[in-house]
């Protein structure tokens, strides 16, 4: 495959079996980049990825294995590193706070250090993109949140991501093109049902067919939900921008979890969603922001980035996917 002018020869993507990692690998392969993906040893999704995207070179290494991470970076000698791997569930991070710190906080520090080492060794610049999160802002006092909003996490996940965010800034000051993309929630049909959006769309389709109910936690939480491939596009633009910066990536609009439910159920053909939703107090988090909303003005100005899929369209696509899945259309 011919390489698109201006794109690197080799990229390393951690978390390549995840939602964003899959979209990113597909994008980079289309551009003619030689893509190397880091996979967790024993990851059940690795075989499927290898069949779907045989062009991607897979390297098995656990994020907690510092030597293995350093070895992969040295073997691949990438010009771009996208660090998407880690514990990505805020809810789960309350159950495993220490593992979350190790995998989502310390591992990025190892990868940043390995990337700088590689840059020094080869003399070739390495661009590093960290998938940071709106959760670093916790319950922010300003809305919308931008790159100047104080970092004050509320969850173990947010604290781990905050450490990684600061380490990006440390390595940037040491001469690495290290970028922190502060991503707000982004969804797709590839989102696992451990996250509320996919849990809702799958439940809507099931309930439309068989009746029944779904248990949810906080229905009032308001989140800024975008379309995952758009957020992958922002990360690629950030890697290739002349200067390394922090970028908020968000749509700037919020909806309540209840709004998501209402719309998804309507698409599935159910008007009276309240009759099918039970609130389970155990699904509420010990602490969380009532609303998270981002101002992506800097990404718009510097990267020319803008979201391309509306909230309504995203929900429609997710429900349609789950409906086709049930009918066996895919
Ligand atoms: P996913 O949960 O879909 O993907 C996470 C990836 O990390 C998976 O490939 C997973 O592999 C891998 N991983 C987990 N533990 C390890 C480990 N010990 N060793 C090696 N790999 C491991 O996340 P998303 O694609 O949704 O998100 C990508 C990144 O962006 C994450 O860092 C997330 O925190 C961040 N982010 C995401 C947002 C969103 O709304 N999606 C918003 C803000 C930030 P396996 O499948 O084998 O477990
Ligand atoms: P979040 O996503 O924690 O924002 O993290 P999630 O979809 O888990 O929660 C969104 C909101 O929905 C509320 N909620 C529920 N959540 C889940 N998972 N299950 C439920 O049954 C339920 N009921 C209500 C939550 O309380 C929350 O307010 C996502 C991840 O992608 C992170 O990796 C990322 O960093 C942040 O978004 C920005």
Shape: globular
What's the helix-strand series? EHEHEHEHHEHEEHEEEHEEHEHH
Q: Give a list of the ligands.
A: NADPH dihydro-nicotinamide-adenine-dinucleotide phosphate, guanosine-5'-diphosphate-rhamnose
Strand content: 15-25%
How far do the termini sit from each other? 28 Å
List low-confidence stretches.
Answer: none
How would you state the average pLDDT, rounded? 97
Class inferred from helices and paired strands? alpha/beta
How are the strands of the largest sheet arranged?
Answer: 3-2-1-4-5-6-11
Number of helices: 11
How much helix, percentage-wise, in residues? 40-55%
Biggest beta-sheet profile: 7 strands, parallel
Structure report:
The structure is a single chain. Strand 2 (34-39), helix 2 and strand 3 form a beta-alpha-beta unit. The chain has eleven helices and 13 strands. By secondary structure, it is α/β, with parallel strands linked by helices. The strands form four sheets. The protein has a seven-stranded parallel beta sheet, with helices on both faces. A two-stranded parallel sheet has the order 7-10. It binds NADPH dihydro-nicotinamide-adenine-dinucleotide phosphate and guanosine-5'-diphosphate-rhamnose (GDR). Residues 88, 90-91, 133-135, 184-185, 194-197, 199, 216-218, 221, 223, 257, 283, 285, 288 line the site of guanosine-5'-diphosphate-rhamnose.
